[in-house]
């Protein structure tokens, strides 16, 4: 009898993080959440299958599980059991996957949606942008804008952590010498995470956010940039118009689940 050859998926733990752009995105997402948890005194955990980060935030999107390998039924079972042991019972948390998953409502999770993974290559051209003052954001800018927009204390603490001007950057946009928008970026694993753009309700349209994103990418390392628009204070669900104006394009749809899910699970199909 001959031994059965190992069937690979291209996502084995021993592969380098930069094996593919998508693999870099997965680990960048995990590392950004880990840094947020570390900055807020939270808890970290992980395995070959997933990374876990608990910032202590009341927002499920700031406490999460990032799948590091394709979600088979067995792997999801292991990961979700580990998540329930990792997070305190009262803590809301999310599951992020760059792959489609099975229906997890039976595990008391709720599907938040399928936000697009946006990509901008370093040689992509930018559309014409408005003339607006963009500068490095001070701690006072960050604290004031994010407090007004209702961003959680753990997220504010992370964004207020030291930025070195290269790997981690914060930029603000001024109108009439008053800060009206904020953008944060992180460069890891050879790609830039063009994080959320928070802007005051007085800023209509995507142009202010696009100007911030363009400035952050032009002044930062010459690497591909990615973004994942999700529901956050200060901008609409699924709204990535600022990223589109700044040259980003959708690559694929990701999957985001949140816990706790529905109290009553959906009814099972019955035979006719």
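Sequence proposed for the structure above (272 residues):
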């Amino acid at each position: 009898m001959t031994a059965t050859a190992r069937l690979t998926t291209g996502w084995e733990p021993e592969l380098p993080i930069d094996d593919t752009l998508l693999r870099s995105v997965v680990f960048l997402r995990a590392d950004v959440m880990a840094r947020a948890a570390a900055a807020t005194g939270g808890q970290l955990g992980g395995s070959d299958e997933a990374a876990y980060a608990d910032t202590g935030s009341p927002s499920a999107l700031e406490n999460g599980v990032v799948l590091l390998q394709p979600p088979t039924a067995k792997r999801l079972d292991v990961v979700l059991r580990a998540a329930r042991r990792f997070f305190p019972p009262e803590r809301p948390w999310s599951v992020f996957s760059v792959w489609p998953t099975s229906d997890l409502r039976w595990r008391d999770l709720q599907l938040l949606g399928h936000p697009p993974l946006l990509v901008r290559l370093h040689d992509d051209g930018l559309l014409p942008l408005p003339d607006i003052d963009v500068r490095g954001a001070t701690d006072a800018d960050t604290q004031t804008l994010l407090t007004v927009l209702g961003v959680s204390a753990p997220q504010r603490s992370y964004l207020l952590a030291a930025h070195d001007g290269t790997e981690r950057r914060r930029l603000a946009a001024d109108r009439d010498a008053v800060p009206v928008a904020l953008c944060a970026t992180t460069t890891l694993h050879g790609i830039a995470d063009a994080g959320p753009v928070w802007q005051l309700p007085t800023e209509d349209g995507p142009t202010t956010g696009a100007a911030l994103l363009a400035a952050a990418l032009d002044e930062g390392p010459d690497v591909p940039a990615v973004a994942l628009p999700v529901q956050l204070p200060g901008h609409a669900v699924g709204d990535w118009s600022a990223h589109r104006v700044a040259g980003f394009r959708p690559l694929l749809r990701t999957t985001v689940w949140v816990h706790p899910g529905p109290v009553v699970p959906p009814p099972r199909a019955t035979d006719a």
